[in-house]
Amino acid sequence: MLKVSNRVTSMELSPTLGMSQKSREMKAQGIDVINLSVGEPDFRTPDHIKKAAFKAIENNFSYYSPIPGFVALREAICTKLKRDNQLDYTPEQIVVSNGAKQSILNVMMSVIDKGDEVIIPSPYWVSYVEIVKLAQGVNVFVPAGIEQNFKITPEQLEAAITPKTKAFLFSSPNNPTGSVYSKEELKALAQVFEKYPDIIILSDEIYEHINYVGKHESLAQFDSIKDRVVIINGVSKGYAMTGWRIGYIAAPLWVAQACSKLQGQMTSGASSIAQMASVEAFNGDQSCTQEMKKAFKQRRENAFDLLKEIPSFEINKPDGAFYFFPDVSKLFGKSCNGQMINNPTDLSLYLLEKAKVATVTGEAFGEPNCLRLSYATSEEIMTEAISRIKNALDKLN
Ligand SMILES: Cc1ncc(COP(=O)(O)O)c(C=O)c1O
């Protein structure tokens, strides 16, 4: 029988991409939809980075690149890790891939065997779960609700560890919650990991530059565990380069070598042009990242002031990334013209239909009480979106 593999059949479609697709289709039909479901900066890639790509084309960077990435890029990443994070890595420890998403997949495929457990604090980024499943691992979720600002405690972490635990995967700043772990909080987690030397720690730092509470803190700063921390990062969010598809790992040598081996049979080296643009992103003027962060911060202030006026939303002020993640459970059980709201998926569909605002259900991120709203859009559009949401919510009773 001709059929799709069980592997792909059992996979969920990316709900964030699904929502963006739906709102694009509505837009194409002439419906004025505001899309707050997106997971990317609305800014343009900075000019100096674009120029580096033009130059790479002119200079015939048109051949296959080395599998783990050009040495120039891996050196630039090491320089960045030293400059921004005070971390020492050699180019051999860096593997560049087609976005941080592929980096996570590479690591999971390289370290997880069938039945190995991967601890993931919940809410989590949607793709983590499917990537672990692809690697035949078992997802073990550690729930952290709004009352603990969506951050797990060391006690929770320790309670989730079993003899089968192989890896831990989390992001700070976090998607979808915007929560940022402080240095002290990370240290407390590191102290737990010290007791379990066989656990590999994946620290997804893709939102490093969009952090409103101060310096970015990485779990790799703790020497006692650094030799089993894999930093995941890239240019997508901090440099407004989502479509360029460049991510990387900074990892123990054995993990880097395994990822490189895997990538050599799967995708080969990432786009040569995008890599040369990324060299400029890391080595060039860094003020663009600060300017974008400033704009996001301003948007956060405005939108937060408006959102906290919605009585049915319980909302934390996010410390990083560009998402709000309000608890909307007070709305469950309400309805409008027979349309019941029993969960955030119902609410998300209701808001799309009634308010023409696209959001993402918290269920996609493992949190059945919340809704994700991205504020990677102008203040004017955000203000209009919130006003539409308010009007639609007023119709529920
Ligand atoms: C937490 C998190 N990690 C990784 C990624 C993937 O980034 P990239 O575009 O580099 O694949 C995203 C993108 O939305 C994300 O939110």
Look at the helices and sheets and give the structural class.
Answer: alpha/beta
Number of strands: 14
Largest sheet: 7 strands, mixed
Shape type: globular
| Relative strand content | 5-15%
Identify the strand order in the major beta sheet: 2-8-7-6-5-3-4
CATH superfamily of the largest domain: Type I PLP-dependent aspartate aminotransferase-like (Major domain)
- CATH topological fold name of the largest domain: Aspartate Aminotransferase, domain 2
Q: Please provide the ordered H/E string of secondary-structure elements.
A: HHEHHEHEHEHEHEEEHHHEEEHEEEH
Helicity range of the residues? 40-55%
Overview of this protein structure:
- This protein has 397 residues and is an alpha/beta fold.
- It has two domains: 6-44 and 288-394, Aspartate Aminotransferase, domain 1 (Alpha-Beta Complex), CATH 3.90.1150; 62-285, Type I PLP-dependent aspartate aminotransferase-like (Major domain) (Aspartate Aminotransferase, domain 2, 3-Layer(aba) Sandwich), CATH 3.40.640.
- Helix content is 40%, strand content 14%.
- It is built from 13 helices and 14 strands.
- The protein has helices at residues 6-9, 15-28, 47-58, 71-85, 100-111, 126-134, 154-160, 183-194, 253-266, 272-283, 287-307, 344-355, 379-394; strands spanning 34-35, 94-97, 117-122, 138-143, 165-171, 200-204, 229-234, 247-250, 323-324, 334-336, 339-341, 357-358, 360-361, 371-374.
- Strands 2-8-7-6-5-3-4 form a seven-stranded mixed sheet, sandwiched between helices.
- β5 (165-171), α8 and β6 (200-204) form a beta-alpha-beta unit.
- α11 (287-307) packs parallel to α13.
- The model has no long low-confidence stretch (mean pLDDT 96).
- Bound molecules: pyridoxal-5'-phosphate (PLP).
